[in-house]
Amino acid sequence: MPIESGSSAAARQGKSKRKPHAISIRRTNSSEQERVLSQREMLEGQDSKLPSSIRQPLLELFGQIEREFENLYIENLELRREIETLNDRLTAEGQTVDGGDLSKGQLKAKASHSTSQLSQKLKTTYKASTSKIVSSFKTTTSRAVCQLVKEYIGHRDGIWDVSVTRLQPVVLGTASADHSAMLWSIETGKCLLKYTGHAGSVNSIKFHPSEQVALTASGDQTAHIWRYIVQLPTPQPVIDSNQMSGEEEVDFSDKDEVDGEVECPSESPTVRAPSTTLKSHQGVVIAADWLVGGKQVVTASWDRTANLYDVETSELVHSLTGHDQELTHCCTHPTQRLVVTSSRDTTFRLWDFRDPSIHSVNVFQGHTDTVTSAVFTVGDNVVSGSDDRTVKVWDLKNMRSPIATIRTDSAVNRISVSVNQRIIALPHDNRQVRLFDMSGVRLARLPRSNRQGHRRMVCCTAWSEDNPTCNLFSCGFDRQAIGWNINIPALLQEK
C-alpha cells in the first residue's frame, strides 16, 4: 500500500487551492482595506440591535463575500472576451481550411463545442470560488451530534485498517505498517493484545463472524488466521470532548504528531504465530475478508489476483483473475456468497459463488481512477470509492449505471456503510471524514481542530452501531485510531 510522502501531501494541498486567473484584475491591498474600512464605518454608524461581538464578524464576512463576487465578475468578463477571441479565430480558420470555407453548420458546431468547454471552465471556477462562501453559511456539525470519544495510540507506523468484532467481548482491531495488529478496549483505549506474526506491513484485519478468530493480510505475501483471547479492563469515565476548544481547521505540522514510539503495554499478551497461513500470492496481500459462515476467506493481492481459500484445509479453492492492475481491496456480502474486488485498473468486479458448480463475474467501469474500495450494504447495494474523488452507489439488480454519485474534493480511501441506518463514512486523503446518506446527501463532517482529529490522511473507517460508547472508528497514517460517537437520530433530524 502506498505511503504518503511529505511531497505528495504538499501536492494535494496545492491542488485544493483555486488558481487565480492569469490576467485577473485585483485591487491593491491598501485600496481594498480603505474600502472595507469606509464601509464598516458607514455600517457602524447605523443603528443596530446586534452586539458588537456578533456584528463585527458579520461585517467582515459580508466584505469577503463582496470581494469574492467582484473577482468572479471580473473573471466572467475575461472569459467572455476569450470566447469572443476564440470564435473570431475559428471563423478565420474556417475560411482557410483545405482552401475553402467551412459550412455554416460545421463552423457553428465547432464554435459551440469550444464555447461549451469554456462555459464548463467558468462553472468550475465559479464553484471553486464560492465553495468557501457557501461553507461559511453551513452550520458546523454540532459536537453533540459527532463527538470524539477515544484515541487509540500505540502503533509505531501508519494504520491501514480498522475493524470491530462481531461478538462479545466487542473489541477494536487495527492493522499497521509497523508489521503488527493490535486489539483494543473500546471504552478505555487500552491495548489488550498484539499480533506480531507477519514479516511485513499488516494491511487489513477482519474478525470471524462467530468465533474469536482474526484474519490479517500482509505485505509479506501471506494472510494469517489467528486466535485471540482477551479480557476487558474496567471502563474509566469518558472525558467529554465538548470541552475542547478550537473549531476551525488548521494545517498541522510534523511537530503536532505523536512524538516518540509509544508501545503496547508490556503486560498485554502477544501472539507471535498464526494457526493457519495462506500462501499462494506472488505479491503484497492488500486485503482479506471472511465469506458468510466463516468457512472460506478471500484475499486480494498486488499480483492482480484474488484467491478463495478453505479455512479448515488452507487449500486454494479458486484463483480469481481478470484485473489488469494491482488489486486494492476485497469485500464479502454479509448474507450471500458474493465477493467484490477493487483495482487500480479503475474497475471493480462482482464475483458470484452462490452456485457451487460455477462462479460468474461482472465487471463495472464507473470510475476514472483507482477504485480504492467497494463494499456491500445489507440490502442490494454496492458502494464504491475512488481516487477520482467520487463515491458511487450501485443497485445489484441493475448495475449499468450508479443510482447516486457523491463528488468530493479529495481522494477517497476504504469506506464503510452502517448496517442499520445505511450511512456512508468516507475517509479522505485530506484528513477529513465525511458522512453521506445513500442518496448522496451530505450529513456531516467529523470535527477537526488543533486538539483532535487526524493529522495525516485517513485510511479507513468502520461502523459498530451496537456499541453505546463509540459507533464509528477511523484510522490514519498519523499512527492513531479514533473512536467517535455519532448521534444518528440527531444527525438525520438535522438532514
In words, what does this structure look like?
The chain is α+β, with helices and mostly antiparallel strands. Helices cover 23% and strands 31% of the residues. It has helices at 6-15, 29-44, 52-96, 104-137, 488-494, and strands spanning 146-153, 159-164, 171-176, 181-185, 191-195, 202-207, 213-218, 222-227, 270-271, 276-279, 285-290, 296-301, 306-310, 316-320, 327-332, 338-343, 348-352, 360-364, 371-376, 381-386, 390-395, 404-407, 416-417, 423-427, 433-437, 442-445, 458-463, 472-476, 480-486. A hairpin with a 5-residue loop joins β23 and β24.
Our estimate of the beta-strand percent is 25-35%
Which class best fits the helix and strand makeup?
Answer: alpha+beta
What would you report as the Rg, rounded to the nearest angstrom? 26 Å
Strand order of the largest sheet: 2-3-4-5-9
Regions with little confidence, pLDDT below 50 for 5+ residues: 3-29, 95-111, 125-140, 241-261
Distance between the termini: 36 Å
3D shape: globular
Helix count equals 5
User: Helical percent range?
Assistant: 10-25%
Q: Average pLDDT, to the nearest integer? A: 81
Number of DSSP strands?
29
Biggest sheet, open or closed, and with what strands and sense? 5 strands, mixed
